[in-house]
Design brief:
Structural class: mainly alpha
Number of helices: 6
Low-confidence stretches: none
Helix content: 55-70%
Order of helices and strands: HHHHHH
Oligomer: single chain
Distance between the termini: 35 Å
Shape: globular
Number of strands: 0
Strand content: under 5%
Largest sheet: none
């Protein structure tokens, strides 16, 4: 980061991608959803796999879930580039929450929880 901040950000972006949201615990997903606008999330979820969709939807109230699904349907076909931008914004929210210590992104055994 001290040598090349832009390269450091690119590497960091590759370490956690939109599909990795499924690796977050439910509380973390709920916290992320608080910081992401429904319209942005709807666009980001276009074309998302079932596992990711299920992880997000199960962490929403029934009213919020209904609103999100309606928003996704209303979008119709969208450009891949628009979806990528929306997903980048969601990942940025995840990173900010991680940096603030509000959520933990599991990266290998070092962050494994022991009960």
């Amino acid at each position: 980061r001290d040598i090349d901040e832009e390269l450091a950000d690119e590497v960091r972006a590759l370490m956690f991608v939109f599909d990795d949201i499924v690796t977050l615990d439910d509380r973390s997903i709920q916290r992320v959803l608080q910081d992401v606008a429904t319209a942005e999330l709807a666009l980001a979820m276009k074309g998302a796999n079932d596992e990711l969709s299920d992880a997000i939807l199960r962490n929403m109230s029934s009213r919020a879930k209904e609103s999100l699904l309606e928003e996704i349907d209303l979008l119709g076909p969208v450009r891949r580039s628009d979806v990528d931008v929306a997903r980048t914004k969601v990942i940025a929210a995840v990173r900010l929450l991680e940096e603030a210590g509000e959520i933990v992104i599991a990266r290998g055994e070092e962050n494994e929880l022991i009960e």
